[in-house]
């Protein structure tokens, strides 16, 4: 068989084979297996994976061994007169029962580990994780701390305009911080489409589904920075919403929570301050770049047919009330969601930015929206 | 009345009509089989071109060739076209050509419906492909089209996608009814159920699966249509609906669908291994029972595609155990093939090479499937390239290799000419190397942590993605050689004998090569 192959090889095919094997030689042979992770559960999962893997290898060696032996020894040249048997009841019973027993031997430890993973009792720390197109929000339920975590990799790196950094596509602007030695429970949901929160080092993967809350838990003893990804196709930027968890010692964690609370305090103060149009526009631009560009694009033109243009839009030009309403409530049946989770300052400034940019201020009324307008909108209407 | 019967009788002495109308109006199972096979080959090349775009983009990190938005359209269309346009019509084409000849029937039972079920397919795929040129682009939510990404958040072309899925479903249901009615009613005297060739058995079971699950798919897309245009909230949590319900319905269709794409392959490979081992097939009855068990089990394992949606513990454990159970009948089939080869008198013509590769590589895909059934480990595998590697091992060197094996095995009977053995073997080796270089490294990429459906990836996955892309280009371009071989065989070549293969058994080898336009107008005698 192989002799035949070589007969047909000409220079072109040799070139192809060389072309294939060249990257094989350079390949990173150490990154071939599942991560072992750093928790007891993730270690158990890794052991299960290796157990099943070696059982599969053993089955493969046995079956392919017999098959390759036949392919070698029972060719027409070596065995011109074929046997005529076409069944063997003992053999057939054996190869039905034995695999069955092997399967049970695999399924029992798997079920045991699964039961441990399914412990959904409350944690020492409970964090609500919400998937958005295309970012994650983390709310610490006990401490009233809440923030968004966005991809921090520059789009110029993605578009190959500048060299890629070490943590390309695996870095965020704000990491989730959890302490060592505590049971942390994640309550996972989504705001728009289905996402999935995967942290390989903890062996956690749970879908984030709008209208549902899934739970997962972990207890980590090793401080460090761990990286994960979204694993359910959620639209255009599915590949660009990574997860980064920073595990720190308890005292460092408490310090961090303190800082986050202070930040929240400062934000509340900002809401009541007097804003100038320039301040709002410059702040709004950064809000826009994080939350809006993915759909409406940097130039405000959107994408024809899916994401409407903000340039020259009648609402953006002349209808301040409706403009606020859309950001607060979203648009029913369209990809535009409510952004009411943003702060009053962020919403007011981003609306002002869109009303003052791309020539909109000349075509429309150019009215400024201040944080107070959003506070008023949120007041119960009688 | 008798005059009509006379006319009908006269038709049997006509050859095919001339020109384009032969193909438009034909009710002949051989013509329709040919149409299906050429159509599926065209779709295979289009879907393959999309795979080339995907692998070109993934050749190195960063966005090079396409935008993420278009990348999502490519993965969606690649999956839909390969499944509904490539593999399924190819198997229907083989059923059309072979089932009547294998059971000694003159034609399919419902020839006009046969014509209809083929001719609506090109329109379905025209509609689907035309969505590429619509505002907002083609469907971009993956071939599994999970709601609400495929409803509230979908591009406007989703409505055309739904319409085209409906047409494909109608075509499949009609095709399946035809197969069932033909097999149940038109077997020559003496061809009892347990004497039917295994390809016929595999298609009988496949046809029942299709009739059972295609309406479920139609239901799912209709519910999507209602959500999008008529204000319902089946899958919209904000309106009291349930996005997970979509996945349950989809996979209740989707899992039997997976076996629809592999059962006929089991039938084909059984024939080829038997022929080239020159030894009776080992365990015919257990082969039949294994296929039946697989088909029945396929209805109770669907949620193993959804282990991460947050099902209750009891459901996870049930679906894990049920899924693992499928390994038993599947194992029986593999063992039977190996036992058929054991102490045979084997030669390795091209169909046999493809069949042997099928057994090995399909088994690798089956074993990685077993790994995926283990729920705790699946939390790490789910939606990574490990899954991509798994199902491509089952579908490419599984389903598609079996189709290629079938073409090499039966084309002498269809065309009357032998294919070029040297070129056939070259095609096999290029495909075999290409497939493994493409998909084997994807196991590593997945285990190391690269999710599927990513247009761009972190730097540690770069090396193996490049290897995989090189393999994909090799595999892709090798298929042009396949096209060349088939065309060359149809045009001319060494004349085939009626028997064609020394060890071949079955009624199709008793008719002339090429098979006359009408065969078995009088039922053959079978002992």
List the helices and strands and how they pair.
The complex is a heterodimer of chains A (382) and B (527).
Chain A: H1 2-8, H2 11-26, H3 40-73, H4 89-117, E1 125-132, E2 135-140, E3 145-149, H5 155-158, E4 176-179, E5 183-190, E6 195-199, E7 204-208, E8 214-219, E9 224-230, E10 243-248, H6 250-272, H7 277-291, H8 293-296, H9 314-318, H10 320-329, H11 344-356, H12 360-363, H13 371-378
Parallel strand pairs in A: 1-5, 4-10
Antiparallel strand pairs in A: 1-2, 2-3, 5-8, 6-7, 6-9, 9-10
Helix pairs in contact in A: 3-4, 7-11, 11-13
Chain B: H1 2-11, H2 20-25, H3 29-57, H4 68-103, H5 111-119, H6 121-130, H7 158-185, H8 198-229, H9 243-260, H10 263-277, H11 284-297, H12 313-325, H13 327-341, H14 350-373, H15 375-381, H16 385-415, H17 421-448, H18 462-491
Helix pairs in contact in B: 3-4, 3-5, 3-18, 4-7, 4-16, 5-7, 6-7, 7-8, 8-9, 8-10, 8-11, 10-13, 10-14, 10-16, 11-13, 13-14, 14-16, 14-17, 16-17, 16-18, 17-18
List unreliable stretches of 5+ residues of chain A: none
| Helical percentage of chain A | 40-55%
The fourth-level CATH homologous superfamily of the largest domain in chain A is: Cupredoxins -  blue copper proteins
The span between the termini of chain A is 86 Å
CATH topology title of chain B:
Cytochrome C Oxidase, Chain A
The H-and-E topology of chain A, N to C, reads as HHHHEEEHEEEEEEEHHHHHHHH
Class of secondary structure makeup of chain A: alpha+beta
CATH class of chain B: Mainly Alpha
Quote the beta fraction of chain B.
under 5%
CATH topology of the largest domain in chain A: Immunoglobulin-like
State the separation between the terminal residues of chain B, measured CA to CA.
35 Å
CATH class of the largest domain in chain A: Mainly Beta
Can you tell me the residue ranges of chain B where pLDDT is under 50 for at least 5 consecutive residues?
1-12
Oligomer class:
heterodimer
- Any idea what the shape of chain A is? elongated
Helical percentage of chain B: 55-70%
Derived from helix and strand composition plus strand pairing, the structural class of chain B reads: mainly alpha
């Amino acid at each position: 068989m192989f002799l035949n192959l070589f007969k047909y090889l000409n220079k072109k095919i040799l070139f192809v084979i060389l072309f294939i094997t060249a990257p094989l030689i350079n390949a990173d042979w150490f990154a071939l297996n599942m991560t072992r992770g750093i928790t007891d559960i993730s270690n158990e999962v890794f052991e299960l994976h290796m157990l099943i893997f070696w059982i599969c290898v053993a089955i493969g060696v046995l079956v392919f061994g017999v098959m390759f032996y036949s392919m070698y020894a029972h060719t027409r040249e070596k065995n011109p007169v074929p046997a005529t048997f076409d069944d063997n009841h003992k053999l057939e019973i054996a190869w039905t029962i034995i695999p069955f027993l092997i399967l049970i031997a695999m399924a029992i430890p798997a079920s045991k580990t699964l039961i441990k993973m399914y412990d959904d009792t409350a944690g020492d720390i409970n964090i609500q994780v919400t998937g958005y197109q295309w970012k994650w929000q983390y709310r610490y339920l006990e401490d009233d701390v809440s923030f968004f975590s966005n991809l921090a990799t520059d789009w110029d790196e993605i578009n190959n305009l500048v060299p890629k950094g070490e943590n390309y596509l695996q870095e965020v602007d704000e990491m989730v911080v959890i302490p060592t030695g505590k049971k942390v429970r994640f309550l996972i949901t989504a705001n728009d489409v289905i996402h999935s929160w995967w942290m390989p080092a903890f062996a956690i993967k749970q879908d984030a589904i709008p209208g549902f809350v899934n739970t997962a838990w972990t207890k980590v003893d090793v401080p460090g920075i761990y990286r994960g990804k979204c694993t359910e196709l959620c639209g255009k930027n599915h590949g660009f919403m990574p997860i980064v968890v920073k595990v720190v010692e308890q005292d460092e964690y408490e310090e961090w929570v303190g800082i986050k609370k202070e930040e929240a305090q400062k934000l509340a103060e900002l809401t009541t301050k007097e804003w100038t149009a320039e301040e709002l526009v410059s702040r709004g631009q950064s809000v826009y770049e994080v939350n809006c560009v993915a759909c409406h694009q940097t130039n405000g033109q959107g994408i024809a047919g899916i994401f409407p243009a903000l340039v020259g839009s009648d609402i953006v030009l002349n209808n301040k009330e409706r403009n606020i309403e859309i950001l607060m409530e979203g648009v029913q049946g369209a990809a535009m969601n409510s952004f009411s989770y943003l702060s009053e300052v962020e919403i007011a400034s981003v609306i002002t930015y869109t009303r003052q940019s791309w020539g909109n201020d000349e075509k429309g009324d150019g009215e400024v929206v201040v944080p107070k307008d959003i506070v008023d909108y949120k007041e119960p209407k009688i | 009345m008798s005059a009509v019967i006379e006319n009908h009788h006269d038709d049997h002495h006509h050859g095919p009509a001339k020109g384009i109308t032969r193909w438009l109006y034909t009710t002949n199972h051989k013509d329709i089989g040919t149409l299906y096979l050429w159509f599926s080959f065209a779709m295979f090349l289009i879907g393959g071109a999309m795979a080339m775009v995907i692998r070109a983009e993934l050749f190195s990190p960063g966005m090079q060739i396409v935008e993420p938005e278009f990348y999502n359209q490519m993965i969606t269309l690649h999956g839909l076209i390969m499944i509904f346009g490539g593999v399924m019509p190819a198997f229907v084409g083989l059923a059309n050509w072979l089932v009547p000849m294998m059971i000694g029937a003159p034609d399919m039972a419902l020839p006009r419906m046969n014509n209809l079920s083929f001719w609506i397919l090109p329109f379905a795929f025209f509609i689907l492909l035309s969505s590429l040129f619509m505002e907002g682009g083609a469907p971009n939510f993956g071939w599994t089209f999970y709601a609400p990404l495929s409803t509230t958040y979908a591009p406007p072309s989703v409505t055309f996608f739904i319409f085209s899925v409906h047409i494909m479903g109608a075509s499949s249901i009609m095709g399946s009814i035809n197969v069932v009615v033909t097999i149940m009613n038109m077997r020559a005297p003496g061809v009892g159920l347990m004497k039917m060739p295994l390809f016929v058995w595999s298609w009988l079971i496949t046809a029942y699966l299709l009739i059972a699950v295609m309406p479920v798919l139609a239901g799912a897309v209709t519910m999507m249509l209602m959500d999008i245009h008529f204000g319902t909230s089946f899958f919209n949590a904000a309106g009291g609906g349930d996005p997970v319900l979509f996945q349950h319905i989809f996979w209740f269709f989707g899992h039997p669908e997976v076996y629809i794409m592999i059962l006929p392959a089991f039938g084909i490979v059984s024939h080829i291994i038997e022929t080239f081992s020159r030894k009776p097939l080992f365990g015919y009855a257990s082969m039949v029972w294994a296929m039946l068990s697989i088909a029945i089990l396929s209805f109770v394992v669907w949620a193993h595609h959804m282990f991460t949606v947050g099902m209750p513990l009891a459901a996870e454990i049930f679906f894990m155990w049920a899924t693992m159970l499928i390994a038993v009948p599947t194992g029986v089939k593999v063992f039977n093939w190996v036992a058929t080869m054991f102490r045979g008198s084997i030669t390795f013509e091209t169909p046999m090479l493809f069949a042997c590769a099928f057994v090995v590589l399909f088994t690798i895909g089956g074993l990685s499937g077993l790994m995926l059934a283990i729920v705790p480990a699946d939390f790490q595998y789910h939606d990574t390239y490990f899954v991509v590697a798994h199902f491509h091992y089952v579908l490419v060197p599984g389903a598609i290799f079996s189709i290629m094996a079938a073409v090499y095995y039966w084309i002498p009977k269809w065309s009357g000419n032998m294919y070029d053995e040297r070129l056939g073997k070259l095609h096999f080796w290029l495909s075999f190397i290409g497939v493994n270089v493409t998909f084997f490294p994807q196991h590593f990429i997945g285990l190391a942590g690269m999710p599927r459906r990513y247009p761009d990836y972190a730097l540690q996955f770069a090396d193996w993605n490049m290897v995989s892309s090189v393999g994909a280009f090799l595999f892709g371009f090798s298929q042009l050689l396949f096209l060349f071989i088939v065309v060359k065989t149809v045009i001319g070549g060494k004349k085939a004998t009626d028997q064609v293969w020394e060890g071949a058994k079955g009624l199709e080898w008793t008719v002339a090569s090429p098979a006359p336009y009408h065969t078995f107008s009088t039922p053959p005698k079978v002992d």
